[in-house]
Amino acid sequence: MSMNFSEFKKLIGADPWNRDPETLRARISSPEFEAAAQEAEVFERKLQSALNIEPPAELLGDIKAISLHPSPRRNWVPLALAATLVIAIGAAGIAWKQSRSWSSIEEYLAEHYSHDGHDLVTAMTDPAAEHEIQAIMASLGAKAGEQLSGSIKVIKFCPTPDGRGAHMVVNTDQGPMTIIFMPKTLVTDGEMVNFDQMHALLVGLEHGSAAIIGEQSQSVEKLEIIVRDSLKTGLVGA
Q: What's the DSSP call for residue 176?
């Protein structure tokens, strides 16, 4: 059975670099599929660029010094060590870099949602796999309780003003809505922001925050209790 367009959009929305045989066959089946795949890849590159870190000059100097003055017992610097240093610098600098990307939480939500928010909402089909949900949440120091995880249709990593977060599309009795989990971002709890015919309720959590996004006709407040009760944050060992 061939993959339909909405299923394809969901797959590449979660993983633009998906190269499974079935996905590749769907991609070349029509110009519409190919265009959607290319659009997802372009957006993913933009997100990766947003996460690229400019390491502090003093650390770059240290790395350069290592390469110029190798250990007497080793006249080379392992590529694995260099990669580890770069990853460590990137992880430490994400918050610094991204806090400079948006002047306000409203600007961040508007820009973020304009890229793929609507597409992910319309592409939702089957529920997201529980193991996928919990793996993403665990890596962010959090856990989605059954009430929340059972309604998640799409989940993927996304940039936030202070590092990596999670972008979720959830099914509700009012239709699909979006939740952006921001593990390290502080917000004004209960504030409502508006952008591009959408509105978002900001929810302060024990650690970090979340934004519940819906159309103006949707009551985003109805998801607040679920988010507060089912989104456990600040877990040790993630």
A: -
